[in-house]
Protein backbone atom coordinates (compact mmCIF):
# COMPACT_ATOMS: atom_id res chain seq x y z
CA UNK A 1 0.00 0.00 0.00
CA UNK A 2 1.36 3.41 -0.96
CA UNK A 3 2.21 5.51 2.09
CA UNK A 4 0.81 8.67 0.53
CA UNK A 5 0.80 10.74 3.73
CA UNK A 6 4.26 9.56 4.72
CA UNK A 7 5.79 10.35 1.33
CA UNK A 8 4.14 13.77 1.15
CA UNK A 9 5.18 14.78 4.67
CA UNK A 10 8.74 13.57 4.14
CA UNK A 11 9.02 15.58 0.92
CA UNK A 12 7.76 18.72 2.63
CA UNK A 13 10.01 18.24 5.65
CA UNK A 14 13.02 17.79 3.34
CA UNK A 15 12.25 20.99 1.41
CA UNK A 16 10.89 19.18 -1.67
CA UNK A 17 7.41 20.72 -1.61
CA UNK A 18 5.95 20.83 -5.13
CA UNK A 19 2.32 19.77 -4.70
CA UNK A 20 -0.38 18.97 -2.15
CA UNK A 21 -2.25 15.73 -1.44
CA UNK A 22 -5.34 15.34 -3.65
CA UNK A 23 -8.40 13.73 -2.08
CA UNK A 24 -11.28 11.99 -3.88
CA UNK A 25 -14.41 11.17 -1.89
CA UNK A 26 -17.68 9.28 -2.28
CA UNK A 27 -19.41 12.66 -1.96
CA UNK A 28 -18.26 13.23 -5.56
CA UNK A 29 -15.81 15.84 -4.39
CA UNK A 30 -12.20 16.40 -5.39
CA UNK A 31 -10.24 18.43 -2.89
CA UNK A 32 -6.72 18.86 -1.56
CA UNK A 33 -4.86 18.79 1.74
CA UNK A 34 -2.31 21.63 1.76
CA UNK A 35 0.96 20.25 3.15
CA UNK A 36 2.01 23.51 4.87
CA UNK A 37 -1.15 23.32 6.98
CA UNK A 38 -0.06 19.93 8.35
CA UNK A 39 3.06 21.67 9.72
CA UNK A 40 1.18 24.64 11.23
CA UNK A 41 2.22 26.23 14.49
CA UNK A 42 -0.02 26.95 17.46
CA UNK A 43 -1.12 30.36 16.17
CA UNK A 44 -2.45 28.76 12.97
CA UNK A 45 -4.49 26.09 14.76
CA UNK A 46 -8.29 26.32 14.86
CA UNK A 47 -9.72 27.41 18.21
CA UNK A 48 -11.13 23.91 18.88
CA UNK A 49 -7.64 22.40 18.64
CA UNK A 50 -6.22 25.03 21.00
CA UNK A 51 -8.97 24.30 23.51
CA UNK A 52 -8.20 20.57 23.31
CA UNK A 53 -4.50 21.20 23.91
CA UNK A 54 -5.35 23.37 26.91
CA UNK A 55 -7.41 20.50 28.38
CA UNK A 56 -4.74 17.84 27.81
CA UNK A 57 -3.35 16.47 31.07
CA UNK A 58 -1.02 13.80 32.38
CA UNK A 59 0.34 11.21 29.98
CA UNK A 60 -0.97 11.93 26.46
CA UNK A 61 -1.42 9.71 23.38
CA UNK A 62 -1.80 11.74 20.16
CA UNK A 63 -3.68 9.36 17.85
CA UNK A 64 -3.11 9.94 14.13
CA UNK A 65 -0.37 12.41 15.04
CA UNK A 66 0.48 13.35 11.42
CA UNK A 67 3.43 15.80 11.38
CA UNK A 68 3.32 16.00 15.17
CA UNK A 69 2.13 19.60 15.55
CA UNK A 70 0.01 18.83 18.62
CA UNK A 71 2.49 16.42 20.18
CA UNK A 72 5.42 18.79 19.75
CA UNK A 73 3.46 21.68 21.26
CA UNK A 74 2.65 19.62 24.36
CA UNK A 75 6.20 18.25 24.56
CA UNK A 76 7.57 21.80 24.58
CA UNK A 77 5.27 22.49 27.54
CA UNK A 78 7.01 19.66 29.39
CA UNK A 79 4.25 17.08 29.02
CA UNK A 80 4.73 13.34 28.54
CA UNK A 81 3.29 12.79 25.06
CA UNK A 82 3.47 9.91 22.57
CA UNK A 83 2.60 10.33 18.89
CA UNK A 84 0.92 7.35 17.23
CA UNK A 85 0.39 6.93 13.49
CA UNK A 86 -0.05 4.00 11.12
CA UNK A 87 2.24 5.65 8.53
CA UNK A 88 5.94 4.79 8.85
CA UNK A 89 6.85 7.91 6.87
CA UNK A 90 4.84 10.12 9.20
CA UNK A 91 6.58 8.66 12.27
CA UNK A 92 9.98 9.25 10.63
CA UNK A 93 9.08 12.92 10.15
CA UNK A 94 7.90 13.22 13.78
CA UNK A 95 11.20 11.77 15.03
CA UNK A 96 13.22 14.08 12.79
CA UNK A 97 11.22 17.04 14.11
CA UNK A 98 12.22 16.11 17.65
CA UNK A 99 9.29 14.12 19.01
CA UNK A 100 10.80 11.88 21.68
CA UNK A 101 8.13 9.17 21.96
CA UNK A 102 6.46 7.65 18.89
CA UNK A 103 4.59 4.48 17.94
CA UNK A 104 4.15 3.25 14.37
CA UNK A 105 0.84 1.39 14.63
CA UNK A 106 -2.84 1.66 13.86
CA UNK A 107 -4.85 2.54 16.94
CA UNK A 108 -6.81 -0.73 16.62
CA UNK A 109 -3.59 -2.75 16.97
CA UNK A 110 -2.23 -0.68 19.86
CA UNK A 111 -2.67 -2.34 23.26
CA UNK A 112 -1.11 -2.82 26.66
CA UNK A 113 -0.53 0.79 27.66
CA UNK A 114 -2.58 3.47 29.39
CA UNK A 115 -2.90 7.25 29.25
CA UNK A 116 -4.56 10.16 31.01
CA UNK A 117 -5.50 11.87 27.72
CA UNK A 118 -6.23 10.47 24.27
CA UNK A 119 -6.17 13.14 21.56
CA UNK A 120 -8.09 12.58 18.32
CA UNK A 121 -7.85 15.92 16.56
CA UNK A 122 -8.43 16.88 12.91
CA UNK A 123 -11.60 14.76 12.98
CA UNK A 124 -9.69 11.89 14.57
CA UNK A 125 -12.87 9.96 15.41
CA UNK A 126 -12.99 9.40 11.65
CA UNK A 127 -10.58 6.52 12.23
CA UNK A 128 -13.57 4.49 13.40
CA UNK A 129 -14.46 4.28 9.70
CA UNK A 130 -18.14 3.42 9.94
CA UNK A 131 -21.00 3.86 12.38
CA UNK A 132 -21.19 0.07 12.82
CA UNK A 133 -17.58 0.09 14.02
CA UNK A 134 -18.04 3.03 16.41
CA UNK A 135 -18.97 1.04 19.52
CA UNK A 136 -15.96 -1.29 19.33
CA UNK A 137 -13.74 1.71 18.53
CA UNK A 138 -14.95 3.61 21.61
CA UNK A 139 -14.53 0.53 23.78
CA UNK A 140 -10.96 0.11 22.58
CA UNK A 141 -10.18 3.77 23.31
CA UNK A 142 -11.71 3.41 26.80
CA UNK A 143 -9.43 0.40 27.45
CA UNK A 144 -6.40 2.69 27.01
CA UNK A 145 -7.56 5.19 29.64
CA UNK A 146 -6.13 5.46 33.13
CA UNK A 147 -8.55 6.13 36.02
CA UNK A 148 -10.04 9.63 35.57
CA UNK A 149 -8.67 9.68 32.01
CA UNK A 150 -10.27 11.53 29.10
CA UNK A 151 -10.69 11.36 25.34
CA UNK A 152 -10.62 14.71 23.51
CA UNK A 153 -11.92 14.61 19.93
CA UNK A 154 -13.24 16.93 17.30
CA UNK A 155 -15.52 16.15 14.39
CA UNK A 156 -17.98 17.76 12.00
CA UNK A 157 -21.61 17.19 11.14
CA UNK A 158 -21.52 17.14 7.32
CA UNK A 159 -25.30 17.49 6.96
CA UNK A 160 -24.62 20.91 5.42
CA UNK A 161 -23.17 19.21 2.33
CA UNK A 162 -26.59 17.90 1.32
CA UNK A 163 -29.35 19.84 -0.44
CA UNK A 164 -31.99 21.49 1.73
CA UNK A 165 -35.69 21.79 0.94
CA UNK A 166 -37.97 24.76 1.69
CA UNK A 167 -38.95 23.32 5.09
CA UNK A 168 -35.33 23.14 6.21
CA UNK A 169 -35.04 19.36 5.80
CA UNK A 170 -32.11 17.74 4.01
CA UNK A 171 -32.16 15.46 0.98
CA UNK A 172 -29.92 12.57 1.96
CA UNK A 173 -29.45 9.71 -0.56
CA UNK A 174 -31.09 6.49 0.66
CA UNK A 175 -27.93 4.38 0.50
CA UNK A 176 -28.64 2.48 3.71
CA UNK A 177 -25.57 4.09 5.29
CA UNK A 178 -25.20 6.86 7.85
CA UNK A 179 -24.67 10.10 5.92
CA UNK A 180 -21.39 10.82 7.70
CA UNK A 181 -19.68 7.72 6.30
CA UNK A 182 -17.36 8.78 3.49
CA UNK A 183 -14.97 6.75 1.35
CA UNK A 184 -11.70 8.52 0.51
CA UNK A 185 -8.80 7.91 -1.83
CA UNK A 186 -5.62 9.99 -1.56
CA UNK A 187 -3.20 10.80 -4.38
CA UNK A 188 0.28 12.31 -4.26
CA UNK A 189 2.77 12.45 -7.13
CA UNK A 190 0.68 9.97 -9.13
CA UNK A 191 0.61 7.44 -6.29
CA UNK A 192 -2.83 6.55 -4.96
CA UNK A 193 -3.84 5.09 -1.62
CA UNK A 194 -6.29 2.24 -1.41
CA UNK A 195 -9.81 3.57 -0.67
CA UNK A 196 -10.58 3.85 3.05
CA UNK A 197 -13.65 4.63 5.15
CA UNK A 198 -13.82 7.81 7.24
CA UNK A 199 -16.51 8.83 9.70
CA UNK A 200 -17.85 12.36 10.22
CA UNK A 201 -20.04 12.24 13.29
CA UNK A 202 -22.80 14.58 14.39
CA UNK A 203 -22.73 15.29 18.12
CA UNK A 204 -26.04 13.62 19.00
CA UNK A 205 -24.96 10.37 17.37
CA UNK A 206 -21.66 10.50 19.27
CA UNK A 207 -23.49 11.25 22.53
CA UNK A 208 -25.83 8.26 22.10
CA UNK A 209 -22.94 5.94 21.16
CA UNK A 210 -21.10 6.99 24.32
CA UNK A 211 -24.22 6.39 26.40
CA UNK A 212 -24.44 2.85 25.01
CA UNK A 213 -20.79 2.16 25.83
CA UNK A 214 -20.51 3.43 29.40
CA UNK A 215 -18.93 6.75 28.51
CA UNK A 216 -19.90 10.27 29.50
CA UNK A 217 -19.89 12.67 26.53
CA UNK A 218 -19.54 16.40 27.14
CA UNK A 219 -19.77 19.09 24.47
CA UNK A 220 -16.81 21.35 25.20
CA UNK A 221 -17.21 23.80 22.34
CA UNK A 222 -18.90 24.27 18.97
CA UNK A 223 -17.12 25.75 15.97
CA UNK A 224 -18.45 28.09 13.33
CA UNK A 225 -19.10 25.43 10.70
CA UNK A 226 -20.91 22.40 12.16
CA UNK A 227 -17.74 21.33 13.96
CA UNK A 228 -17.34 20.65 17.67
CA UNK A 229 -14.94 19.50 20.39
CA UNK A 230 -16.09 16.76 22.78
CA UNK A 231 -14.65 15.31 25.97
CA UNK A 232 -15.35 11.65 26.79
CA UNK A 233 -14.79 10.06 30.19
CA UNK A 234 -15.64 6.73 31.79
CA UNK A 235 -18.71 6.61 34.04
Automatic annotation (TrEMBL):
<protein>
    <submittedName>
        <fullName>Class I SAM-dependent methyltransferase</fullName>
    </submittedName>
</protein>
<dbReference type="Pfam" id="PF08241">
    <property type="entry name" value="Methyltransf_11"/>
</dbReference>
<keyword id="KW-0489">Methyltransferase</keyword>
<dbReference type="InterPro" id="IPR029063">
    <property type="entry name" value="SAM-dependent_MTases_sf"/>
</dbReference>
<dbReference type="GO" id="GO:0032259">
    <property type="term" value="P:methylation"/>
</dbReference>
<dbReference type="InterPro" id="IPR013216">
    <property type="entry name" value="Methyltransf_11"/>
</dbReference>
<dbReference type="GO" id="GO:0008757">
    <property type="term" value="F:S-adenosylmethionine-dependent methyltransferase activity"/>
</dbReference>
<keyword id="KW-0808">Transferase</keyword>
<feature type="domain" description="Methyltransferase type 11">
    <location>
        <begin position="61"/>
        <end position="152"/>
    </location>
</feature>
Amino acid sequence: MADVFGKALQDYHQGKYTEDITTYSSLDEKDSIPLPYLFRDYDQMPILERKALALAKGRVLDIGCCAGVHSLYLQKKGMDVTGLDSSAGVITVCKERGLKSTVNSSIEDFKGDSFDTLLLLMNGIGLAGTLDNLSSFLQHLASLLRPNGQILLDSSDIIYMFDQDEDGGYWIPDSGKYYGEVTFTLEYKKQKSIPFEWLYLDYNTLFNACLSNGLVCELVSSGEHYDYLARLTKK
